[in-house]
Amino acid sequence: MPSTCLITGATGFVGGHLAEAAKGRGWAVRALARPGSDTALLDRLGVEVCRGDLGDAGAVGKAVEGAEFVFHCAAKVGDRGPVEEYRAANVEALRVLLDAVKARPLGRFVHMSSLGVYAARHHHGTDEGEPLPDRHIDGYTQTKVESERLALQYQREHGVPVVVLRPGFVYGPRDRTVMPKLVRRLAAGQVHYLGGDRRVLNTIYVGNLVEAVFLAAKNPKAVGQVYNLTDGEPVTRQRFFEAVCGGLDLPLPHQRLPRWLAALVVRVLYRQGVWATRRGRPALLPPARYKFMVLNLDFSIDKARRELEYRPRYTFDQGMAETVAWYKQNAKER
Fold first, then answer.
1. Domains and their CATH numbers in the chain
2. pLDDT score at 330
3. Contact residues for 223 (Cβ-Cβ < 8 A; gap 6+)
4. What are 312-330's pLDDT values in tens digits?
5. Is the pTM of this model over 0.85?
6. Closest residue by Cα to residue 147 from 78, 203, 76
7. CA distance to 261, 290, 311, per residue, from 271 (Å)
8. pLDDT at residue 285, as a whole number
9. Would you state the pLDDT for residue 137?
10. What is the distance between the alpha carbons of residues 168 and 292, in angstroms, rounded to a whole number?
11. Beta strands in the chain (DSSP E)
């Protein structure tokens, strides 16, 4: 008998790839999708679509019935807006899902978190033992910390077999949000190095992330654990932007200000950005963009390598080649 899984967020970037991979493995796949959301890809894959909101206990109860695995990819993502809106989507809706499965014989509950839960500072090999801040820079990262704590609480108190995955910046084909915005800004010459071009990003190709999900789903050592996930190789901002710009024939970013002056300006803009973001106001440099453009984001994946036997199948160059090729083929849809 094939395994049966429920995927939340399956109409999104990561969830869609996960649904495709699960079907490719012969799994029976079910998706909980909001009314009106585009399920064309899921329909083509033969995914069973349950219409309903994640905050609706009745709809969630029906969706989890008979599922052996739950892959929770749904989340409200962004760098502005009231924290209460993020909390409703990322914490309280998760609570509804956890309540629905806590008394069921579940094989695994894989909770998709983010490396964004760590403090907004330079990281050099930071591992899962790093304490998380109680107060974060924006509604998204704040509630991702809260959602992790909630999921692990249900593991301890109710025996839900939770695994928490913390991927970095996910890229790949079918990303219709982050990469298109970045490409438009690059094309318009609006991306400039702010002294961080030689610092590394926490990139992970979506294909590597999907493989990690299945490793976490099948390994009994993973229950109750948290894992950092990246491509496992250093990718500087310069290398990342050169790969995008070279593949799409876009102008390269450059360093406009001397590094010492850029560092001073960035500190001022960061403080203004945090202040504005917490109040729901426009920021000249949103904290999330500050992290992406300035900070060194090197995280250790040794625990995932050791316990999950995670070995990234795709190198950064291979993943970016796939990403650029898809983007070129689908340029008219951007």
1. 4-176+202-231+298-315 (3.40.50.720)
2. 86
3. 108, 155, 161, 162, 163
4. 999 999 999 999 999 998 8
5. yes
6. 76
7. 16, 10, 38
8. 62
9. 81
10. 11
11. 4-8, 28-33, 48-51, 69-72, 108-112, 123-126, 162-167, 169-171, 200-201, 203-205, 226-229, 235-236, 297-299
Other Cβ atoms less than 10 A from the Cβ of 312: the count is 23
Distance (Å, rounded) from C-alpha 292 to C-alpha 295? 7
CA dist 169 and 14 (Å) reads 11
Other beta carbons less than 10 A from residue 294's beta carbon: 24
**Do the Cβ atoms of 207 and 230 come closer than 8 Å?**
no
CA distance 103 to 73: 21
Q: At what angle do helices 178-187 and 316-329 cross, to 10 degrees?
A: 80
Strand runs labelled E in 181-290: 200-201, 203-205, 226-229, 235-236
Q: Is 247 exposed, middle or buried (0-12, 13-18, 19+ CB in 10 A)?
A: middle
Ranges under pLDDT 50 in the chain: 260, 334
Q: What is the 8-class DSSP label of residue 257? A: S
Residue closest to 29 by CA, chosen among 39, 37, 38 = 39
Residue 163: half-sphere exposure toward Cβ, Cα within 13 Å: 28
Identity of the residue numbered 260: W
Q: For residue 82, what pLDDT is reported?
A: 86
Give every CB contact of residue 87 below 8 A, 6+ residues apart in sequence: 139, 142, 143, 146
pLDDT of residue 279: 60
